[in-house]
Amino acid sequence: MKKHISGVFSLGLLSLLLLLPLCGVAQHTAAPFILDMKMMAGSKAKISKGDKSVMQAYNKLIKEADKALKSGPFAVTNKKTAEPANDLHDYVSIAPYWFPNPNTPDGLPYIRKDGQRNPEVDNYPDKEALPKMVSCVDKLALAYYFTGKEIYAAQAVKLIRVFFLEESTRMNPNMNYAQAIKGQNDGRGAGLIESRHFVKVIDAIGLLQTSKNWTSADQSGMEQWFADFLHWMQTSKNGRDEMRAKNNHGAFYDMQRMSYAMFTKNTEVVNAIVERFKDRIDYQQDTDGSFPAELTRTIGLHYSTFVLKPFFGMASMAERLNIDLWNYVSENGKSLRTAIEFLYPYATGLSTWKWQQIKPYEHSGECVDLLKMASLKYQDPKYVDGLSRVISAETAANHMSNLVLGLDMK
Fold it and tell me: pLDDT tens across 96-106, in order?
């Protein structure tokens, strides 16, 4: 028997919780699921007092939000050709680690060079437009939350409407043509990793609930879009292929499903993912806390960090339902705590990485959000010390984790 998760509710009570606003009083029934609203409320109170501990990070956020006011709008329909799709509204990209075959006249089929990025990726603008849109919406929604200024909310809403809702520009709710491999396929399940950023849009929508610019039509439209996208994820060949992935892709697939299911109040899916979380920890993680599928990669330290983000994301979302996944331990002793313990010495430079890492590991950028979360969830000062090892005092003062406890999806 696996150890029980403290606070696991019956499906009936889980259903009731999902039908209620999960954070405060809101105009609509949505809320951030990964963002820690307690921390953000504390940051907001500090900002109102001009507390020096948060003002540098706050000023940086406002500077970025002001830049986002002049950015976009972004749309998948901005590309010049839909190929290999037939519809400009379909998201299209190619696999980043696949290159022309030097042994064939036409370069087909493409061959894999793990960890090396094919510059042809830049010829497919959807791959750039999607995360840019998400980054702008994220910054604008946060700026709206901290300032109450409708100018930020209005621009965030505009960007959301153009990308998801307006008939002339909206993205079709699928990833049928994501991460295609030339000469092999027009799209594949692995392409779903590129939609992971959407969880930040859902959290942003939670922050926009009190804005006069966010309408009931916007809310219902986005709920329908994500209900359709979730249906595609669970019924399409590409979606089901990604469901079966036993590396970071599978974990990101479940993190996305959990966010979209909570947003659309699909209690059956949320309940199933809580159970899948336990299964994934059991078969993806080794007893030493490592993730073997990530260790085989040519940038293994990056992927060993990256794989923890969806697991931390699911644990954060489960908290909103009073379900504790942070302290779940499988019958084989596998858990999020053992995972961060394995990563800690390598991510902070205390130990030399023993596997491949053909690119520099950005200690200051890749693991800060994970260490910040671990320091708060496990109340272990070691993780605070780890933060001081990977970012300078100046960088720390400017870092978003000073204001917001959330996840960088890079």
Answer: 999 999 999 99
